[in-house]
Design a protein that fits this description.
By secondary structure, the chain is an alpha+beta fold. It is built from 5 helices and 16 strands. The two termini are 15 Å apart. It binds pyrrole-2-carboxylate. Pyrrole-2-carboxylate binds next to helix 3 and helix 5.
Length: 318
């Protein structure tokens, strides 16, 4: 049996995060992006063991704290989900802030952390509220038209918020929890059309998050969303990187001014407050996303010899 692996679980607006506290694999140093590549190539069984059934479930997002060589960062972070690693994760960063508080690291101030796609900052504002300053975000293409089988012509914006998003305002879907199956099918079909037409982000990366918007009756929110993530699970939170992509589009359209707050509600009713400012040359905006998280478990993962499913169901290493 391997050494037990301590994890702290939290949820940010309903979306779970599992931060690995002990037993983090040795990834050989270098940038977080380099370490993520080693993680992908050599430790996929570890990823699957942490987030997939029987210890986790498909919506679980895992995170590893790793060394950083960046002069301004004390550490780096690698996020992962049920099918692979993630470039960035906003709700997970909010979960990290609350996890560090739970572990007794109370006087943190502003923390700078190296992610696989750049430096992020976060600050714990009270026991459960965290403000994240995300990587520079922007809209790459506006009103991209695609023909989606069974649904017809669909238009969306392609934007970067730490992950690539296809953001759709005009659609015939009802953003209600009871419609999760239909919403998942719709977004999955959109993903397939983007992939088969090789419609990708500016850097050639796959657009692996689809985000739908609708009006909301919640007086504390400006809009409701539904976000489908790469492992075909929907984000229970408003999605930190998705909200960053959204405010980048709103800034580009002049719908919000620098510093003006946009309140994004998720499909389960949780809300992130976001705003943005332009960078020096006005080509990118720097989003700030504020949300709350709560601890749900402090546990040890155990992998016993002889357990054929110790690396998770569906993992080739098991
Ligand atoms: O909050 O950025 C986010 C996120 C990405 C995938 C799930 N949550």
């Amino acid at each position: 049996m391997s050494e037990p692996i301590r994890v702290i679980d939290s949820h940010t607006g309903g979306e779970p995060t599992r931060i690995v506290i002990s037993g983090v694999p040795e990834l050989g140093g270098g940038s977080v992006s380099d370490q993520m590549q080693v993680f992908n190539e050599k430790f996929d069984d570890f990823r699957s063991a942490i987030v997939n059934e029987p210890r986790g479930w498909d919506a679980m997002i895992g995170a590893l704290l790793v060394p950083s060589q960046h002069p301004e960062c004390n550490y780096g972070i690698i996020f992962f989900n049920n099918v692979g690693s993630l470039w960035m994760c906003g709700h997970g960063t909010i979960g990290l802030g609350v996890t560090l508080k739970y572990l007794g690291q109370t006087d943190l101030g502003v923390q700078k952390v190296e992610s696989a796609v750049g430096i992020i900052e976060f600050e714990l504002l009270d026991d459960h509220t965290v403000e994240l300053t995300n990587v520079p975000s922007y809209r790459y293409r506006r009103d991209v038209e695609i023909d989606v089988p069974g649904y017809g012509l669909v238009r969306g914006d392609i934007a970067w918020g730490g992950n690539w998003f296809f953001l759709i305002k005009n659609h015939d879907q009802q953003l209600e929890l009871k419609n999760i199956r239909q919403l998942t099918e719709y977004c999955t079909t959109v993903t397939e059309v983007l992939n088969s037409n090789r419609i990708v982000g500016e850097d050639g990366k796959v657009i692996d998050h689809i985000e739908l918007f609708a009006d909301t009756e919640n007086p504390n929110a400006d809009s409701r969303n539904f976000v489908l993530c790469p492992g075909l699970q929907y984000d229970r939170s408003p999605c930190g990187t998705g909200t960053s992509a959204k405010v980048a589009c709103l800034m580009a359209d002049g719908v919000i001014a620098p510093g003006e707050v946009w309140r994004q509600e998720s499909i389960v009713g949780s809300v992130f407050e976001a705003s943005a400012v332009w960078n020096e040359d006005g080509s990118r905006c720097i989003p700030t996303v504020r949300g709350t998280a709560y601890i749900t478990a402090d546990a040890h993962m155990i992998m016993q010899d002889g357990d054929d499913l110790r690396f998770g169901i569906g993992n080739p290493g098991s």
